[in-house]
Amino acid sequence: MAILPPAAALLDWYDRHRRVLPFRATGGAPDPYQVWLSEVMLQQTTVAAVGPRFARFLARFPDVAALAAAPDAAVMEEWAGLGYYARARNLLACARAVAAAGGFPRTAEGLRALPGIGPYTAAAIAAIAFGEAVVPVDGNVERVMARLAAEERPLPGVKPVLAALAGGFMADAAARARPGDFAQALFDLGATICTPRTPACALCPWRGGCVAQRRGVAAELPRKVPKRARPLRHGAHFLLRDAAGQVLLRRRPPRGLLGGMLELPGTPWREGGWETAEALPFAPRPGLRWQAVPGLARHGFTHFELEMRLFSAEVPALAVAEGEELRPLAGLGAALPTVMRRVLGLASSFPPPLAGEG
């Protein structure tokens, strides 16, 4: 095991330079609900994106009881644009479990039993909200540990080694006395100093104890196994408007990719492209003359890239069937996941066709 630098040096740096974040407590004990909510939001999402959305979500669902009582559709809509929508479904399930139990478990082990809470999130809540002597390990912390020890073995295989190295800091009395601050200090160090590219080693409170810095290889670590190229899939979607400016939307099934989210009706997403004649049978209303909107929209999911076409039509009035909704076009993007915002963006400068126009 590598010789670890003193936790006190990092905590002293954190006391002077900690980031001011809307979800970080500035006085008094942290609220477990807010810690949990922020950690779930921050998964696969940037701090810059989460800040304003966290405040808006908290205003609508101020505590775990309010969230637990909320309709599924309201929570999914509030989550729109944050991506990785299984998080929102798990958020609801977890809120309902916590409300039924009368509060959050106070240990990482207990937290891990809740829906949607994995090892990192459980450790972050336990350390920050409840002061448990554990170290949550995210990508920032892995990078810091890999550089401290000049660990050359690549991610993801070396993750257990880096987690064990981080956990070793809990043998340091300073870290054990302030586990929540120590965790957040690690996050801040990785986000602002020990960054993926061009780390600011001269400003690092641990530069004297960093093996990678001494060897001049900090910017090269951690090493990673090259990712495989993601396959490309194709889809077509349909923008159907009425004379009042209402748009026909469809709610996706509650499980699976984008589960429970609103979308423009469309084809399945597949590896082969969609010719117009193949796509039109998937249009939401038969007998209309759909116009192809120029351009293609593209969106990246974790396991594949998606390229989409858009067709547009207008009718005098619309009635909805089961699973469909009407929403005003103005401000529609706020209710849609990012992938649908991108395909809808194709129509931003496209004039709506007249009813029956080819």
Topology:
Layout: H1 7-17, H2 32-42, H3 47-60, H4 64-69, H5 72-79, H6 86-101, H7 108-111, H8 119-130, H9 139-148, H10 159-167, H11 173-177, H12 179-192, H13 211-215, E1 232-242, E2 246-251, E3 262-263, H14 276-279, E4 291-300, E5 305-315, E6 324-328, H15 338-344
Parallel strand pairs: 1-5
Antiparallel strand pairs: 2-3, 2-6, 4-5
Helix pairs in contact: 1-12, 2-3, 2-8, 8-12, 9-10, 9-12
Order of helices and strands: HHHHHHHHHHHHHEEEHEEEH
As residue ranges, the low-confidence spans are: 351-358
Kindly estimate the percentage of residues that lie in beta strands according to DSSP.
5-15%
Q: CATH topology of the largest domain, anyone?
A: Endonuclease III, domain 1
* Nearest-integer average pLDDT: 92
Taken from the alpha-carbon principal axes, the silhouette is: globular
Rounded radius of gyration (Å):
24 Å
Q: What kind of sheet is the major sheet? A: 3 strands, mixed
How would you describe what is shown here?
The protein is of the alpha+beta class and 358 residues long. It has 2 domains: 7-220, Endonuclease III, domain 1 (Orthogonal Bundle); 232-347, Nucleoside Triphosphate Pyrophosphohydrolase (Alpha-Beta Complex). Helix content is 38%, strand content 13%. It has 15 helices and 6 strands. It has a 3-stranded mixed sheet. The chain has a 3-stranded antiparallel sheet with strand order 3-2-6, with no helix packed on it. A hairpin with a 4-residue loop joins strand 4 and strand 5 (305-315). Helix 1 packs across helix 12 and helix 8 (119-130) crosses helix 12. The longest helix is centred in the first third of the chain and has 16 residues, at 86-101.
